[in-house]
Design brief:
five-stranded antiparallel sheet, 29% helix, homotetramer, globular, 13 strands, alpha+beta
Chain lengths: 301, 301, 301, 301
């Protein structure tokens, strides 16, 4: 439900306009130094600080992490690490109109059908705000991975039809001016992963990565190695391309996967008020890294 | 590791050239009638009976299911259902040469690195033969889903660059004649799924489906709803397309996803002897249905 | 590790002298009203308010629950419920001497050996303070169980050799005056549980109850039905006594189990300073009820 | 349900009078030599070969293990190990009378209420025959533990009121002659377990052991360390007795626990025909060792 992982687990909680969002990490080894500065910087990156087309809330609300347990003098104790980020800039009143209506393309209606009750205040659990907790968890995972020589780097490689990164801001700004939004593709590379990660049958490494990444809001697809594009190539031409995984198990070479994010359905053009992003894919980049780090550290635990 | 699911679980076991492959289903409700004829027919479909380009073993070895427990007079007892399929046509001698070598594009080497030991007899666990057990499990899942009004239908929609189904056999035959192989795309539609299936955060329905499907041998990508193609469309144009899932939860409409299968790396052209398929995507179709059924019945349990 | 349950899960976190202790409940159904008054009263009961022999900290520190998520207007949202209790009366300085020494009968040393680091401030995670979070979780479980007609009542039935409840305070006071401590036996009755709870093989109801109760600090034994005492009775005399469970499954009659708590090893007599209880069994009573409620609600979810 | 463990898992299947009972072990490391002779000998021990008061079936039916997967040349492959024991001496006709009646003290009725269907052939899953699969799994666990220097030894320490082992056979024979049955207490010692096994909060080592042992048919209680008897001792007298576990974590010293088994309710005196044991506790001894081994190897995996 709200727990990710088996041995290095991350429990996420919090509504976007409630008291706080946060998480509990269980299974983090003792003695790990936590780089608080990196966490701050990754949260800013997720918030879209200085990015074209990011929503005002994301830019204005500094995400301050409060550590409740599991850390003493900046080092982990081996006990559960609980942290929260208070929702300072919550504006439930902006969403009063949602009490009795559902937004197109949002989860408002299915939540009400599933639970019989709904936190109408800006999406509640379904809000992208929840990903801030993922980024904090991901930072701790990344720091542990880095010590093992494993690096994760994601980047935006396509916005709409545009594949030239120098033109991305321009493209996004154009959609924003029209009160519209646009999708994007994020590519992520894992380097330094040792051979042998992943299980042969159901828990293949690619299945675990797909599960982690497809759990991010607005993600509509995942591919690795030869991907969808490889369908037109004969076996003789591509049988040397492993994509870093053989039989579900890492083979020691770099792994590159790609995932696609749809544009947010909340646009001025669609008549939906609120604080929205013109291209959520830009802000998804650190979240893709975070989920990749979380799933890898769990597999390595 | 070798268990799929949380409440309706499927444990898979068996090497392709050992005594038997099989599975244990735990959590299947009591009193369900099992349609043995459907299981036979689905196993034939997986074996590629009558299909262009299917490997001889698949066609010649009738997969006979032996039921060991959990079923009395064709009805389930609510206790674990264990079944096996003996490996009658096992020919370890065909693979003697593999004892001291690794095949390109196969998992031979990573298995040896991961386990320090390897069943060289035709891939062992990594063989596609393991999917026969998935098909048996999937049939039981499908039968239970059908009673709930849920139907799953997969079909091949692309082979190489060809998208016209009437030309698929021709395309495959052409690659086979060259001792080569080719990939394909499978599309799968779920209809009748009630609203409310899937969890909002990590266990989003799309993440669960991706996990299930990406665990199939040779699968390199998964997409649903607007998919990768949707990246060029603005939010205003596609915000009404849910793909059957909102916020990770089924919304009561049909769900269609697509997945891509790479060509088998074992080709005569690559100098690899054995019994291989010219287009594994054809035989993946019932496996995609099986894994979809298994993941859905688990979510509904 | 720090998560209890499969479907209705309780994640516990917090060191006894850190910022806070708390928990996250996942899988609690939406729409449940939370009785905050009952939670306050159960926390007082656990704290030993007004009890003979309870430690000063327990009595002086009011446990105030702060709700972070999952609850709106006193009703559950179906999303994870996170709560914390701040450690107001934390006095790390009382434990400075523990930085470089281990207490007899305590977990200080094994923690350091297991984790390589230790929160010396009053036991950290090993402190009985952690059970306050269990009591909060247990209250929510109990409230849901009560709606289903299931009641749980635990009581102290033995203190040292004394089995007359009217003499318990007197007995405890006698040990306290000597700077010593004494054990006790708690008996717990579950009534209203429907037939069919528990699984036939490993997850027998008695195994689940034993697991839940034996996880409480200082608990050294568990028995139900005919228990240890039944060993002297022939089958013909006791084969009608089910103890409320047959083949691991509840049979619809009341279930009564007993568990024993050893005296705290921290006694003035043993030369250990700090704030301790003369008979922890008295304060274990609501914790036994809490763990029983938590395991039952999980089995019923 | 029918799976024990998290990382080294044991899935049990099979009805006592169906085709076979068996199991699947997942997570067993590759390269372990399996001592088939020890397995045979432990199965004989469980069957009560040569024991006073054991049921005729247990003595007459040689339990032959058939290995289906995961083992090559007597060594484990790291893949799931599936094994079966066929039910050669199944006599469903002996149980025809059970089709329409329930036995006192047995699980017949709750099974029917829970599942709506019941395998009346001799108890089905509820039969003690299922423990043969536990013994096979336990042997493999024990062999791996032995390599790590960990030994498990259980023994019968009480039969009825008798605590002198030389008089046990005599005591049992007396009850058998009267067509009655009697309970017993089994004591088990774990030696060589390293420090640090067990988790501090819910998964305390004593809770895991209790869970494993209380899952054995007819077990009514579990105690360790000072146990129930310690209730009369003051803290100052027993605070040096850890029972091998501190704060839920093994402390490197021997662990001794005790568990009680009630007499079988199926007695001639009670008018129940069939093949029964006069003292099931005798045959529980290897099962207690098996479950202890399984839970320990899982915690160490």
């Amino acid at each position: 439900m709200n727990v990710f992982g088996e041995k290095w687990t991350f429990t996420s909680f919090g509504e976007s306009h409630g008291a706080a969002i946060g998480g509990v990490l269980d299974g983090v080894p003792a003695g790990l130094h936590i780089d608080m500065e990196m966490i701050r910087s990754e949260l800013d990156r997720r918030a879209g600080k200085g990015m074209t087309g990011a929503s005002p809330r994301a830019k204005n609300e500094p995400d301050e992490v409060e550590w409740l347990s599991g850390v003493i003098d900046g080092r982990t104790l081996g006990t559960p690490i609980a942290f929260i980020i208070r929702n300072k800039d919550a504006r439930p009143e902006d969403y009063e109109w949602l009490k009795h209506s559902y937004r197109v393309g949002h989860a408002d209606k299915v939540y009400e059908l599933k639970y019989g009750i709904r936190d109408w205040r800006g999406g509640g659990r379904a809000s992208a705000r929840e990903t801030a907790a993922r980024v904090v968890a991901g930072c701790i995972a990344k720091q542990d991975l880095a010590q093992k020589g494993i690096e994760i780097h994601a980047r935006l490689v396509q916005v709409g039809a545009e594949t030239d990164p120098t033109k991305f801001n321009e493209t996004i700004a154009a959609y924003q001016q029209e009160g519209d939004s646009i999708g994007g593709i994020v590519e992520c590379t894992i380097s330094g992963l040792p051979t042998g990660v992943g299980e042969p049958i159901f828990n293949k490494l690619q299945a675990e990565l797909a599960f982690a990444v497809m759990s991010i809001n607005a993600c509509k697809g995942f591919e690795y190695g030869t991907g969808f594009g490889g369908v037109t190539q004969p076996g003789s031409a591509i049988n040397h391309i492993s994509g870093g995984i053989a039989g579900g198990i890492s083979d020691g070479t770099d792994i590159t996967f790609r995932c696609v994010f749809k544009p947010t359905p909340s646009t001025l053009k669609a008549g939906i008020k609120g604080r929205h992003d013109a291209c959520v894919a830009t802000r998804a980049v650190p979240v893709v890294e975070a989920m990749t780090a979380i799933v890898l550290i769990d597999l390595l635990s």
